Amino acid sequence: MQQTTLIIHGGAGNIYKGMLTDQQEKDYTEGLKYALDQGYGILRQGGAATDAVIAAIVAMEDNPLFNAGRGAVFTKKGLHEMDACIMDGKDLGAGAVAGVRNIKNPIRLANEVMLHSGHVFLSGSGAGDFALQQGLESAPDDYFFNKERYEQWIEIRDSNFYQLDHKADNLKGVAPNTDHKFGTVGAAACDAQGNIAAGTSTGGMTNKRFGRIGDSPVVGAGTYANNATCAISCTGHGEYFLRAAVAHDISCLIEYKGLSLSAACDLVVKDKLKKMGGEGGLIAVNALGESCFSYNSTGMNRGMRNSEGQEIVAFYGE
Amino acid sequence: MQQTTLIIHGGAGNIYKGMLTDQQEKDYTEGLKYALDQGYGILRQGGAATDAVIAAIVAMEDNPLFNAGRGAVFTKKGLHEMDACIMDGKDLGAGAVAGVRNIKNPIRLANEVMLHSGHVFLSGSGAGDFALQQGLESAPDDYFFNKERYEQWIEIRDSNFYQLDHKADNLKGVAPNTDHKFGTVGAAACDAQGNIAAGTSTGGMTNKRFGRIGDSPVVGAGTYANNATCAISCTGHGEYFLRAAVAHDISCLIEYKGLSLSAACDLVVKDKLKKMGGEGGLIAVNALGESCFSYNSTGMNRGMRNSEGQEIVAFYGE
Description:
homodimer, alpha+beta, 8-stranded mixed sheet, 4-stranded antiparallel sheet, about 25% strand
């Protein structure tokens, strides 16, 4: 019998025990559980992996705890510019958007791009025009306002620093991060037909400028799905994930070298990416319903539920 | 002794003998030869692969024959929105821009992104702000005006058709292409130190809208370089190249399956990509200075020069 699995993340970074208050831990637990409920509910009813991925991500986009949708961070200009991508492992269909504003659920827009645009990757105000044409739900700037995010931004807006929402390094150009919030969200699923899909959604880096695009909306970097290998969603310092083509590299290690899902993920995340200096992590699932988390940061907000009755919600490293 | 090689393309598509007039053939030959001169001149003097790639691409960006820089096609709104990417195989450094306007040489901007932005991928007006800050040469809209391109656009601007500049299919959404011009440009090089690099620059599709981004500026799709495997620049129907992560797939076939450069290129272009329905081609070089062309279209504008004294300039299929 085909195993169904949903796996999600809400950002990786310097997350360690004692860092979150009891209330924060409770809020994150609830947020991740609710996303699992929404996404896995679709798989349980025999729904498609893509729909489960969208439902789980929408739940996190609507939750201001996460740096995606409603909780997206502020750019240098005080705006919210969001990126998202979805990929369907059945036919390698893909849709992505970069730098979109005032879209309530960027992952839904990425799905519209995949299904109805004739394209794969749309950006900026043009992607906004496409959203209007497709009747996607918009939201005013106020909807995205969040006091904590605003204060993060105020602290660094007059500098040229930018910060990953989920990172505590002192990398060149990256401000010391005093942030307790963690970022990018993603989901990967295997449905009852043995189809797999992955999606990622993010507000990017606080104080980002120059229309910076990270790995999240880039097919093969932050997001990838192929029934023959795996479905992957990444989170971390996007520039490294782009240069390493992380998600596609894992797929190739499985397809061409015969590595297992977890061996391929760990080789890329804990060895190759770490040697480059890239901090972060990812979630993965394959068409057997097997899944894994892999991260080289202290922790990663994460969750998993499958038809074997397993459920995980966790934050800290093991 | 280390072999040095420069390989370039000026777009792939339905290019067949008798299609180009003698004058057009002469103009393209001159354009490609000039690009080889500019790029190979740097390799001959012991210069870096990245600099050779930039010089060859700048030569084609400055030539209105090609759909990049000066010759960029018109968007739905009558603008010129250009994409470019460069990658350095020595350290997997990469820089890319998407949807930039009024930049004389987008490949130079991609290089600035790689060297001086702290990022990999910038887009839209934000990338334009970065160009200003870095003192990149700008050019007014007039500079990009070209009568033939304008007429191509006028023919379809009131439709929802878009067209690849170098394609004659009747794909859904793609207008029958009566165009004799061929598009996207790219270069890959191996220098005397055995370092390799690749770059790509394009105006994208005539009448494109919604801020569409193709494969050209996407690391791992239209452009990729890794000293351990290969340097690749692609041209063709970008949506397929994005979904197939073409350039990175070739790198993985070499790294993980031990395929030769040409076997890996042909497997991806003539088998995998063709089965998906993706038309186009690519150029490739490795750190031994070996190079190859691969395309599944009728022809590809292409050139190669190396330290063995070989030189190729060709258009049609063999």
